[in-house]
Amino acid sequence: MERSIQELNNRVTHLVKTGTISNKIVTNGTIHTVQVSQFNGYEVHNNVPMYGTWGVTSTPPVGSQIITLSGYGAGNNKFVIATHDVNTHPQKMSQGETQIYDANKQSLYLSVNGIIITAQNEYEIKLGDNTIFTINKDGISIDANVSITGALKVSDSITATGDVTGNNISLSSHIHSVTAAPGETGAPQ
């Protein structure tokens, strides 16, 4: 009887535990697996499945905190149900905000003031395999037809490989009447 109570106590103790990620996460399978260190490194589990929410996946840095759940309270069938990294977790967010972030300080931040996208070197928007919009240190590149409603204010320059039309006037083929002499000007060169 005493052994049964001790066994039950051990299973309850091991049902939900905290720990850390102690090696790089393996991401080449149908589910990510991780090495988990628990009880200050006295207990190490390899190839532990790491579950997340459908549509969102991540590979937290080594050293991130985790919570494991062990079916039946046995250590041989545990899986990760939550992760957290104090070094990269965003701070000072307002109630109701959401942020998707990574270890490189890149993020998609749904703030109370609007949507803020932070990228290290380049930001792209793709449709299928086609890159339509790119922002990097060299500027903004748009590989699509552009339609602007309202005024366009340019403080630097715009380069277009196709025709630019404003108020139904073509930049590459419009002509002007000449009042001082007979005829018209030629198209822009």
Automatic annotation (TrEMBL):
Start and end residues of each Bacteriophage Mu Gp45 N-terminal domain: 26-85
UniProt cross-references to InterPro entries, sorted A to Z: Phage_Mu_Gp45_N
Protein name in UniProt: Bacteriophage Mu Gp45 N-terminal domain-containing protein
